[in-house]
Amino acid sequence: MHRAPTAGQFEPGTHPIRLQPETRMFVRSCSLSSWSAAGAAAVAARAPASPPPLPSSPATPPPKLGSRSMASSGAGAGAGRVRLAVVGDVHDDWILDEDTKALHFLQPDLVLFTGDYGNENVQLVKSISDLQFPKAAILGNHDCWRTHQFSEKKVDRVRLQLASLGEQHVGYQCLDFPTIKLSVVGGRPFSCGGDRLFRPKLLSQRYGVDDMAGSARKIYDAATAAPEEHSVILLAHNGPTGLGSRIDDICGRDWVAGGGDHGDPDLEQAISDLQRETGVSIPLVVFGHMHKSLAYGGGLRKMIAFGANNQTIYLNGAVVPRVKPAEAMNPSTISTSERDELQESASVGPMSRAFTTVDLFDGTVEKISEVWVLVSGAQAELEEETVLYKRPCEHM
Ligand SMILES: [Zn+2]
């Protein structure tokens, strides 16, 4: 068993570890203070005069005095250390109190939600909007499960979800986080993947988007609105085309023999146009929709991919279901009666909750991990960390 390296740090003498989907690092009995202290150290490095933002995180990113004194030489430069926490497709697995405890433990500067909260689960989306962390979200295909059109007159569940999220719904929008020099730009809302627009009437009525080219243009325009010194994180419900067509590729079709590329062509178009025509820096594209567990027990999906020149990292955060009973109470190791009891108390018993953390330094992705945080009562601790990516540490 290996102990995972401290969050936000690199093991001394470690050299580039490109992509290690098979490298699983399990951390058990890791106290709250162990990972939390790492996050606190990262915060301290940015703002030595400020205490770590516990126990309650502010609604806006805390000031980072250290970062402002760093030399700035381009997009994202001078932003210092930044941690993102990605909440992949929720599918009704969200409890505000429990996820808040887990997030306090992880200490992200920004939380990203990839969509599919439930099937138009307005209450759940409202609960996410109540989360007291800086955040950005996008709605997925399940968030317009029954609503096919957008009406100014009728208050439907899509409108209620959009109203709850307000500016934090980034579909075709750019949301700036100046203190961490990041902007989050949203892809096409309600995407279901593939080469046809999902809910075309809704998209046309709400956003004036009638085809893939128009959609790509809106994503492009939103990204060019980001301040020049910001890096841009693209947040979409589904990833772009062009990242592979095998069953287990990051956007690969897993429900048909032979696979296929189920990415969003408009997102690929927008990214390639931005990279070709503008100086917009896109270190990271985050999405979900295509679940980690493949259909028909076909194994696990690749959750990370790299763009040309490795300038952009693509991250699929759809670890579904994202909540499971704590390891000690794993249903496969307990009796039927214990399991029934556990299911009855599932919402209050110790549960592990999945996130994908992304650590950036000056706008460049340093490390990406899938983490499971065990929340039990008032306690939160790291149960498991799987490092998906680690960057060479030239600056360390
Ligand atoms: Zn979806």
Automatic annotation (TrEMBL):
Compositionally skewed regions (Pro residues) per UniProt: 49-64
Pfam family, one: Metallophos
GO terms assigned for molecular function: hydrolase activity
SUPFAM superfamilies, sorted: Metallo-dependent phosphatases
Chain positions covered by the region annotation Disordered: 47-74
Domain called Calcineurin-like phosphoesterase: residue spans: 83-292
Coiled-coil intervals, chain numbering: none
UniProt xrefs under InterPro entries: Calcineurin-like_PHP, DevT-like, Metallo-depent_PP-like
NCBIfam families named among the record's database cross-references: TIGR04168 family protein
Name under which the protein is recorded: Calcineurin-like phosphoesterase domain-containing protein
Species per Swiss-Prot/TrEMBL record: Triticum aestivum (Wheat)
